[in-house]
Design brief:
Chain lengths: 120, 397, 360, 567
Amino acid sequence: MSDHSHDYPSFNHPAPVPLLFVVFGALIFLTVATVVTSNIELGEFGFIVAMIIATMKAFLVCAFFMHMWWDKGFNVLVFFSSLLFVSLFIGMTLLDTGSYKETIDAFPTTEESSLSTTEY
Amino acid sequence: MNLHLPLLLQSTNEEIIKRVQESTLSGTKVPQSSIEHQGASSFTQFWDSSYWFPEQASTFAPSVDYLFMWIFWVSTIFFIAIVFSMVYFCVKYRRVGGEINPLPSSSHNNLIEIAWSVGPSVLLVYMFFAGAQGYFDSKIASETSEEIQVTASRWNWVFTYPNGDSSSELHLVNGRPTKLIMQSNDVLHSMYIPAFRQKMDIVPGRYTYAYMVPNKTGQYRLSCTEYCGREHSKMRTLAEVHDTDAHRQENTQWIEEEYYPWKNGERIYKINCSGCHKINGEAATGPALNLLYSMKERPLMDGKVTVDEDYVLESIWYPGKKIVEGYGPVSKMNSFKGKLTQDDVSQVIAYLKYLNNPADVAGGDVESGLRAEGGDKSGTAGTIAPNDKDDDGSDET
Amino acid sequence: MAVADTTDHHDHDHDHHDHDPFIAHHFDGPQQQFDSGKLGIWLFLVTEVLFFSGLFVAYTLYRNHHPEIFELAHHHLDKVLGCLNTIVLLFSSLTMALAVRSAQTGKNKNCELYTLITMVCATIFLGVKAVEYSHKWDLGIFPKYGFNYTPGHHEMGFLGLSPYLIKLSAIPALLLASFAGASVMGKLTDKPAQFKFFMGMAIMVAGYFAGVAGGVVYQNAVDSGHAHLAMSSSPLQLHAATFEENGQHHSHQHSDQHSEGQGHEGGEEHGDDHHDQRHEGSGESMPKSVGAFFSIYYCMTGLHAIHIIGGIVALAWIYYRSQQGHWREDYFGPVDYVGLYWHLVDLIWIYLFPLLYLID
Amino acid sequence: MATAEIRNKIFSTPETNYLNCTKGWKSWAFTLDHKRIGVMYLVGVSIALFLAGIFALVLRSHLVKFDSGMLSYDNYNKMFTLHGAVMVFSFIIPSIPAALGNFVLPMMLGAKDVAFPRMNLASFYLWIAGTSCLLMAILFGGGLDTGWTFYTPYSIETETGVIYATFGAFILGFSSIFTGLNFLVTVNTMRSPGQTWFKLPLFLWSLYATSIIQVLATPVLGITLLMLIAEKTMHIGIFDPRYGGDPVLFQHFFWFYSHPAVYIMILPAMGVISELISVYSQKRIFGYSFIAFSSVAIALLGFLVWGHHMFTSGQSPIVTLIFSAITFTVAIPSAVKVFNWLATLFKGSILLNTPMLFALSFIFLFGIGGLTGLFLGALSTDIHLHDTYFVVAHFHFVMVGGTLTALLGGLFHWWPKMFGRMYNDALGRISCALVFIGFNVTFFPQFVMGARGMPRRYASYDPEFQIFHQISTFGAFVLGIGILMAYVVLVYAAFKGPRCGSNPFRAASMEWQSSSPPDFHNFIHQPTMNDPYDFDSQVYDEELDTFIPREFADPDKLPARPEPVHH
């Protein structure tokens, strides 16, 4: 592309069209790949594979469709810091609920328990 | 604002005692000791832990009080230092005559900053470890603890003991490690015994546990501290520590020498109904129950109904169907279908009839003798026995 | 007190920018405006990520604590439709990126076209989703409380379609009619801008019906021809076999009640019946706890669909401004911001798809 | 050097200013001017304050007797819920950032407006919509009796207006996000040339830290409340134990927002105090960078401690331990701030006017509030004190003693800038004394009650606590009168007070380089960027009877700069 020969304002970085199509192709490929791998019995590993593929797709979308590749470092930092807080949220909550899960499982389920199921 | 001053003076101890007695009869349980305790502790000095805390009645209490007072002193020293220097600077460096003349002084000093960040943290580390230690002490139950089942529901407590007895106050034996296994029938509750420095939420859908070793006989407050709805503040009862098992049993055992349906009905009433339905003629969330069998017909929101067994059963199983005049338009009551069997309801009905006239039901006259006995006991020991407290206003007073 | 100065203070306001309509007065220039907007939209995306995080936490917890429920439940999600929707969304992301590029290079016509394609993809996605939802509701697959799976049950409405699908499609149909009407009005009253804009809107809404049509054709094929083949391995099907026939009528009524939004009050008695019946009929069959998966499924995909609808509204605004020829090499911010939002919606779907549809 | 004519034009009281440049209600309702939005926000949050304050007085009156029948239990429960919900969501969270911050923030940057003025106005209207929705719970929902925390499963079961209220809080959350997002972008992209991060006034650092929390935490409240509404209407079985949900999970969700929200409430107050202490001591703030970073540290640590609201909730012991440990770390940055304020007072030239007295009250009250937090952070004492009046007193010391005092101090400080008129300082000081005394009388007895085992949210209580409740109620009325008096002094000043100059207090941050009240575009002349704590940059001008920047002063009368201090 001849984008860079053109005199754009400094904040304007149009993405090259062929690159966008290549990224789209890769995304479709990964989508098909994740469906295919989900049909193979991988056990626990299957979940990890699915997440790795999803993260690869997310990377492609972020980097090229969302122009992160050309964006300011601060904006990228802002966006990824959100993931830090999400993981904190998930991590601590999971740690806690995981440790008292047994007490919930031990409790009679709704149908059997004396918990009132009528509206109060 | 002056409006409240006379009130402050007005509330003499006697008056409070009188009102406590009244309120005790209307369903709230207050340890007798707390009335006297009030006078004593108000005049204790605030630097003594007994100023801040109710008496210590469990093995955890001393460590909690110790840590509290420790933090109290650390905080007080810091606070006095802060306020003293603030006031001192404000007086010494105050602006006089509108002339602005700050003295030359430094505006940053990393050494000082680090010193006053790191210095106090040492104290914080101690607080954390002492707190954590006390916490784990109160969380780890001894192998030999006695297990008491606690069922909380709006707005009642039921404590069931290993021998199958149950009561609406918690009765413990002095020095015996005890594990409370708690469940809730409806919403969140929290079991709090200030004298034991112990508190634990009761979460519906799972069991939670509280552990304690009482070490002083007496009566203590037990309250719900997790907001649970209308009569949250009435969800108070007693925790009583007895010196021997035998003494406890006197309080937890329901007199079983002769079985009469109405007595079981009374027990069912206390566990399930007493939160909303009074038996002293007062209207609460729901209508009072002692008058029910004195009427032939009861006025409803629309029309009337004949008071009979079918009506009572229907009202308990399907509360929304017939709503008593003045309690509508929608019933606030839970359905007890699935919770109370028809047999249970029959016993409740026997109790309702007993409330109207003891002579109507089998064994109704037995009660008077027992009551006299119970009254004597509570008179001498200064306690309130569970089977003769809030039944009706006409008794004893 | 000082002498009041009476000269006009506002002279200096007119110093810079020469009334450029697209540069707000409080910014120093296009660069500052663009940087502000860009940081603003990234921060907005941060709030969106955290907004969805609550549902991801719920998902993680329930999957972690009850993997068997997820194992059992996800078979009811159709991988083919899910994959189709993923591809549609990815394609819309591509066209969105191309729209941004067109705006950056000042090609308003291209931007208009790409925006329209993006919107059509979005409505196709919603159409397919509507088919998925209504198909589940037909089978009594509701969130936890109303969950009452009744295999093989289909209520036929108009044209043999699910009554739920017809209800869901009412608003798009209304929109299609009014947009088409407005477009025709524009033509008749000789307002080309109105004609063009509403024509685009009508095409956009038409995408929904394309999605519905595709989804229904696929679903019917699965239900009739390959039903046994496709579902025979499903644990749901096996469990469901133990379901008693007589339970079905009641349970359907019950779920119907709920779909009409009276779950809270009207459902009281039904709730009781429903529970009793479950005791009689289900035995060890599909536990009601499976509903937990669908609770999370509906919350996640529902919230995602709401974001898609929000995105469509934003895209319609971009579409309008493209038709007005607003974009320049130094002013394309709005397209870029909406684009970032749209890609985020896509990103979330990229994770939702394997998490919900592809559980081993 | 500027001529007298230019000086007069820039710094004298202008004929037209942001208040009177356009007229009619529409010019306010549709304004995009951050100053007008700030003033409207101020009016709004003040109404919310008085409404919730009246609820509080009703509550306290009810509690005068241990078995008082003044309110039914239901009404008592509704009162404390509405008091809490309106105070938290409609008053404290938007108070300092949205009212004072909106007015001051762009001017401190030398900017004409915030980055997104439309979003700013939208934030205000969302505030109105959210607050109305919250109050609709009273009109159409029969009140709200869940406590402001909306704990499940009670909030799912109760028939009161939970859906109205949660929806209202949801909308208020968006209002808060809009303000925070706007401030973050404004501070990032619209600083004056030469205004580096370390030349920002500390109020902006604290607003920046607050905004980080608003943007990161508030969305979680949004989704939590949406899930609660879904739980209530569709029974999705995530929070409701009757359908296999987990009530403790709700508490995690709720406190993931609401603990950081506590810092949304206190951080801006700390920023205000940093400004006041420094200006009224006429001394460079001590340890600028430590105060600045402690704001950010508090904001970030605030996300790691939410579990300390759940020590007795059935949370697992290991998580409890982690949360307790991190909780203690928050004490450090808070203490650093207090020590630095004290060091700023040292050798200053301290003017004890109304705003300064409020600032000093803040240090006193926040000191108590902060130190009592230690009792609640330590596990074994928290088990005893949790959900008692000790906790009630603790957070009122922080939020009322802290935030409300700082808000009033900030209002007295910036009032001359906002309205160009001076208040009666003597009356202002009396109001401060009333607030200070009333506050302590109200809440100190509650510490004792709490430690002795008086649970919170009780409509009737054991008679041994009656005397404490009576003292507390007495204090509450004094506090109410003090706040009312402060407002009367301010409102009277806004209309009838004597005119004052552009910079009567010799403050050095940029907002004081505008006229009082400011021009519609904030600055008639682009202000010169200078150090916000270099008070020698401002010199007294006799003709204008106010302080003006040194470069505008008459060179003949220019006082010499004192020798800079070396360390």
